[in-house]
UniProtKB/TrEMBL annotation:
Extent of the signal sequence: 1-23
Name the UniProt record assigns to this protein: ABC-type transport auxiliary lipoprotein component domain-containing protein
Domain of life: Bacteria
InterPro entries (UniProt xref): ABC_trans_aux
Keywords: Signal
Length: 193
């Protein structure tokens, strides 16, 4: 009886306990502007292959929040803005879609590449957030490309800056999506040459 009374006394508090932050109203995601058409067959017998790895990221990007570079040494995060999944994985998917569509290469996943990985694209996503001083979305990708087995490593830095109207979830998501696609197009053209 005593346990039942304690349980009933704690029941009103159950609605007050929270084990994490409230989820935002919506989550941000990236969408490729260029994709291989649905139903188009691809074969490594007639086209070169490439394996695209998920880029490494600094700690500020190793979460689902959108960083804002407030000053040279201060980073904040956009209020109520969260990615549906880590930005590095989404960016790798945008790269894969764009490279496949623009270069004609067959893009392989890590699991598919064991027999013949073809060219290999890796890199570091150094910036994927907002620069408060210029009110712009910034995507910086340091790419490393090996075009063929045993070949030399080519490195190149790509960057896109897109103005953002307000540092809020909606405008930030749109600007980062546009900047990510701009970088992906430049990388695809570099890979395809």
């Amino acid at each position: 009886m005593k346990k039942l009374l304690i349980g009933l006394a704690l029941l009103p508090l159950a609605g007050c306990i929270s084990f994490g932050a409230d989820a935002p109203d919506s989550l941000l995601s990236l969408t490729s502007t260029e994709q291989v058409p649905v139903g188009q067959a691809q074969s490594s017998a007639g086209a070169r292959t490439i394996t695209i790895q998920v880029p490494n990221v600094p700690q500020a990007l190793a979460n689902n929040r959108v960083p804002v570079q407030a000053t040279a040494t201060d980073i904040a995060y956009v209020k109520d803005a969260q990615w549906v999944e880590p930005p590095a994985r989404q960016f790798a998917r945008v790269l894969s879609d764009t490279v496949g569509a623009r270069s004609g290469r067959v893009v392989l996943s890590g699991a598919q590449s064991f027999a013949d990985p073809g060219a290999r694209l890796a890199g570091e996503l150094r910036n994927f957030g907002i620069d408060a001083a210029s009110s712009s979305a910034v995507v910086t990708y340091d790419a490393a490309l090996v075009r063929d087995e045993g070949g030399a490593v080519e490195k190149r830095r790509f960057e896109a800056r897109v103005p953002v109207s307000a540092i809020e979830a909606g405008p930030v998501g749109v600007a980062l999506n546009q900047a990510a696609n701009q970088v992906a197009v430049e990388v695809a053209d570099w890979v395809g040459r």
